[in-house]
């Protein structure tokens, strides 16, 4: 039973530990807290959708150390993020900024949805109008002409 409880505790709390190694941790708890917060918003370029705080990849470790070096040097959070983007590109941000070319990507999804909604609505309205304008059936003259064509 103890082994089961221990295994369960490890399974639940191990992901919370993250991949930050003891030799990476800064002595100043305020700077370390800032580094952890910044690391949660930076993508591991090897693991893709995992932040560098949780990734065990060597590149993630390098990024964690880079962030801590910049903080120790006195950079603000914005300056650290700018330095990471300058070095690795905006892909390194887990939540890319909605500016410049990225603005097109942020707007494209909702815009395409609205266009599809408009096209679908126009199609439905067109079908309703076509059904309303359709004649009920053949007139007496049309039925007589049809019988004449088809013969006895």
TrEMBL record:
Residues 8-150 form the CcmH/CycL/Ccl2/NrfF N-terminal domain. Residues 1-19 form the signal peptide. One of its GO terms (cellular component) is plasma membrane. Keywords: Heme, Iron, Membrane, Metal-binding, Signal, Transmembrane, Transmembrane helix. The chain crosses the membrane at residues 103-125. It comes from the Bacteria. InterPro entries: C-type_cytochrome_biogenesis (IPR051263), CcmH/CycL/Ccl2/NrfF_N (IPR005616), CcmH/CycL/NrfF/Ccl2_sf (IPR038297). The keyword Repeat does not apply. GO terms for molecular function: metal ion binding. Pfam families: CcmH. Possible subunit of a heme lyase. Belongs to the CcmH/CycL/Ccl2/NrfF family. This is Cytochrome c-type biogenesis protein.
